[in-house]
């Protein structure tokens, strides 16, 4: 990977996760920590991120465009999404969270006899012409930058339904298994989704272990299953298992 490509990937990753440590970025990009430090210093000087002790923060420039987020770790997300879709039986109901991994789950549900409920406008676009799927869209305020619905109406809609499966996204999983998110406005909706589902499945690639987030979404005991990758932190996976969540590797 050329230096420019690597630096663009760093900025893109920070916009997704809001922050990143030197060790995590080095592992993600397959380069030395010294290389990442040099990149962070250069990107800081260019105003593309904010350098902090141990890593960097994303520049506050609004949400990363959905298409850019979707391109980050695309292969990993697709493996996780495919494994998640395999859990669902025909005739069941599925609640899909916002985000790009949930969109990929929807792509693997085509042609199935299912009910899909979502606040994810990208999922709406993906499934709207699939006549085999009964598609229910939650109400709410349109958050255009991330193609989602949020707010009181979304939460109230969730209080009126109950589904078999929830596929939940996250900004990161703490070492103790707590699920976090970086976008405060989405957290109440995620919590309402958890209450509306019989089985809560967290979808998280290896870079989310540990990940970043300022707001707690749920405790590990509230999860029934976590679909992730073999590279996800073993200690965190052990905490999740101890809390009662089944960890499935895609």
| CATH architectural designation of the largest domain | 3-Layer(aba) Sandwich
- According to CATH, the fold-level topology of the largest domain is Rossmann fold
- pLDDT under 50 segments (min length 5)? none
Counting H and I runs of at least 4 residues, what is the number of helices?
A: 10
Largest sheet: 7 strands, parallel
Q: Kindly, what is the distance between the CA atoms of the first and last residues, rounded to a whole number of angstroms?
A: 26 Å
SSE topology string: HEHHEEHHEHEHEEEHEEEHEEEHE
Strand fraction: 15-25%
Indicate how many domains the architecture comprises.
Answer: 2
Shape: globular
Trace the largest sheet across and list its strands: 6-5-4-9-12-14-15
Kindly provide the name of the CATH class of the largest domain. Alpha Beta
Indicate the structural class: alpha/beta
Radius of gyration: 18 Å
User: How helix-rich are the residues, as a percent range?
Assistant: 25-40%
Give the mean pLDDT: 89
